[in-house]
Amino acid sequence: MSEANNHNKADVIVVGAGPAGVSASITVARGGKKVVLVERGSFAGAKNMYGGVIHSHAASEIFPNYQEAPIERFVEEHSYVLLSDDASTKITYKNPHHNDNAFVAIRAKWDKWCVEQAVKEGVYYAPDTLVKELIVKDGKVVGIVTDVEEYFADVVIIADGVNSLLAKQLGLRKKIKPKHVVLGVKEVIKLSPEIIEKRFGLKKDMASAMEIVGGPLKDVFAMGIVYTNKDSVALGIGVSLDDLKTKKIKPYELLDKLKEHPFVADLIEGGELLEYSAHLIPEGGYKKIPKLYTNGALVVGDAAMLVNNVHFEGTNFAMISGKFAGETALDAIERQDFSENQLCLYKKKLENSFILKDLRTYKDVVRILTGRTASFLGYYPEKINEFFGIFTCADGVAKKGKFQKFTKHFFTKRSLSELFKDAFAGIRIILGILK
Ligand SMILES: Cc1cc2nc3c(=O)[nH]c(=O)nc-3n(C[C@H](O)[C@H](O)[C@H](O)COP(=O)(O)OP(=O)(O)OC[C@H]3O[C@@H](n4cnc5c(N)ncnc54)[C@H](O)[C@@H]3O)c2cc1C
Q1: What whole-number percentage of the chain has pLDDT above 90?
Q2: Which of 19, 154, 243, 283 has a 20 to 30 A CA-CA distance from 221?
Q3: Which protein residue has the closest C-alpha to ligand 1 atom 13?
Q4: Are residues 56 and 132 in the same domain?
């Protein structure tokens, strides 16, 4: 191991130029300290994919000029879609005063823009550089080994995403279990802006964000998404890795089935497939958050499993956790104390923020839902569609008999014990959230 000198020593090294890493590095640079941001991709965003929605509160906190970024469209309406085999019921929230709450952006462009801002503010950026391992000396992280050379720092911020080999090297994280991770697969389908706006009923340059359950996804713990870019549509599913493994289902076959459902098929008709990608999403929630700090190092974003799957929030958790880690590093530099006792300030910041508060609120939701997949993501979406099928149909047949038949089926197709279990699960979810 070569010793640190001025050339290869920074105050802080950040590994990974995703939303978490770039936010951490820009925070340190704004505090006037030397920070190096290391990214294995040829450019930031080259290796990254996600659904498509970024939450403005976090973007504006890190980048007050975020509206100058390559934003595809601002989200005008947010919908939840329940599918049966053929039908669909859509619930849409729309409020002109909330149009700047969130926006759709393409990571290859957004991440690149974010890094450009960081560099303007003094971050030393090292793309195309793989961090192979951390250097630990006398129980403290003191630097990184890259494929080029060794670099040293007082604090290393680990922002290397869901698989975080570096957090594993430190023993902060164990190998992720399939039940604590979701595989996201996504297609981007080209359509003209005019067709998108007409088909989705959108104002010019505005976006629709849809989350979909049921129908072809009913047999697994899975959800679909449809987000509108400027001149393309992002269509994807997030599906439990555990279900893929045990039920021997191929994710792209599931996505194909979703594309064939009349609701989705109508939205993407005539579109041209531009790209296909896949990425893991941490699903463990509050109970699976690893230890977030050790002597000389902090873990942020997906590497720290900070994702709220109930609300599809990951980028905002990544950005704000990165900011907290950057602030904690600045504080440690000020005090010249890089021990766990000092760096635990990062955890306190997370605890006092929406990040750990929200994850705690939803700590049991995914686990309870996973146990009742067939009900909540299959049976009830189907029944809701059946109900609206009756409710909206005028065919000269009296309604009473149809409702009686519907009610009879509702209680005979599902045993009383299953219905009780569902009700109990629903109550546990509500009580867990309100507690
Ligand atoms: C399918 C899918 C849909 C999603 N949809 C949404 C959504 O709509 N809205 C939302 O808010 N969130 C969404 N998320 C979650 C969101 O993408 C993540 O929570 C967020 O990207 C986490 O940011 P991060 O910086 O922690 O990690 P990442 O974005 O994964 O960035 C990690 C970076 O580290 C780099 N890296 C890794 N290892 C090394 C190494 N050894 N050396 C150097 N560099 C390294 C990688 O190349 C990468 O650039 C989605 C995720 C997926 C997979």
Answers
A1: 85
A2: 19
A3: 314
A4: yes
How many structural domains compose the chain?
3
Q: How many other CB atoms sit within 10 Å of the CB of residue 219? A: 14
Q: Are residues 16 and 119 in the same domain?
A: yes
pTM: 0.95
What does DSSP say about strands 297-299 and 150-158: parallel, antiparallel, or unpaired? parallel
Residues 126 and 258 in one domain: no
Task: Select from 245, 238, 226, 244 the least CA-distant residue to 282.
Answer: 238
**160 part of a folded domain:** yes
Minimum-distance ligand 1 atom for the alpha carbon of 281: 53
Cα 16 to ligand 1 centre (Å): 9
Kindly state whether residues 166 and 38 are assigned to the same domain. Answer: yes
Q: Look at residue 164 and tell me if it is in a domain.
A: yes
For residues 201 and 303, state if they share a domain. Answer: no
Give the domain range for residue 332. Answer: 9-70+106-174+290-361
> In terms of domains, do 186 and 316 share one?
no
**Residues near ligand 1 (Cβ within 6 A):** 15-21, 38-41, 47-48, 50-53, 130-131, 159-161, 184, 186, 236, 238, 279, 281, 301-303, 307, 312-316, 318
How confident is the model over 22-35, as pLDDT tens digits? 999 999 999 999 99
Regarding whether 422 and 338 lie in a shared domain, the answer is no
My answer on whether 26 and 161 are in the same domain is: yes
Q: Which residue bears the tokens 């530099």?
A: 333
